[in-house]
Amino acid sequence: MCENEHMILHTRAVGRVLCALGAVLLGACKQEPRDNARFLGPCADPTSALAPAAIDVYVRSVTPLPRRFLIASGTDSALPPGSDARLQRHGPTYLFPPDTTLRRRLLERLDSISGDVGDLPTLLVTYRGVNRTDEYRAIVRLGGYFVGGNAEGKTAHRAVQFACDTARWHVVRAEEERQT
């Protein structure tokens, strides 16, 4: 290949790269205003989609640290989609059945496992809702009830606070709520 052909191929390759880079930069410039809701107006309304992010902060804020979790299904206190998977990252998660006979059997089984390995704090986690407190703040409320073991009957209700910064909701902190 002669030097001129090599130079032409190199120039074309550089041109393609610069064209692609320009398209990416132009796309990024067009995306910026849409992604930066702080300058366009209020943040999008908070939804139950914030609950999975709230789960991590919630679990870390509970004392004693839960080792197993129970979740209800088919009720107004059931966790929103995606939250149960996030909860499973923190420990085994079991479905807490609405039928009292099945509940009793599940709790007996969990107690028998605890008897073999020591106290395993088990927390029934409930969803209590989400609401906006002002233009850039929202709260996800999660409830918890220790079932069995040394922490039996103890509650763990938390308000997980979020702030909107550059069009994204970020967890700020979790605070204890004394509601029943």
Question: Which features does this protein show?
Answer:
single chain, 180 residues, alpha/beta, 2 domains, 6-stranded mixed beta sheet, 6 strands, elongated
Lay out the secondary structure.
Elements: H1 3-35, H2 37-40, H3 51-61, E1 68-72, H4 83-88, E2 93-96, H5 100-117, E3 122-134, E4 137-146, E5 157-165, E6 168-177
3D architecture notes:
By secondary structure, this protein is α/β, with parallel strands linked by helices. Helix content is 40%, strand content 28%. A six-stranded mixed sheet has the order 2-1-3-4-5-6, with helices on both faces. A hairpin with a 2-residue loop joins β3 (122-134) and β4. The termini are far apart.
**Number of individual domains:** 2
Tell me the span between the first and last alpha carbons.
81 Å
Segments where pLDDT lies below 50 for 5+ residues? 6-11, 17-41
Helix content: 40-55%
**SSE order, as H and E?**
HHHEHEHEEEE
What is the strand tally?
A: 6
Radius of gyration: 25 Å
Rounded average pLDDT: 79
Query: Helical region count?
Result: 5
Strand order of the largest sheet: 2-1-3-4-5-6
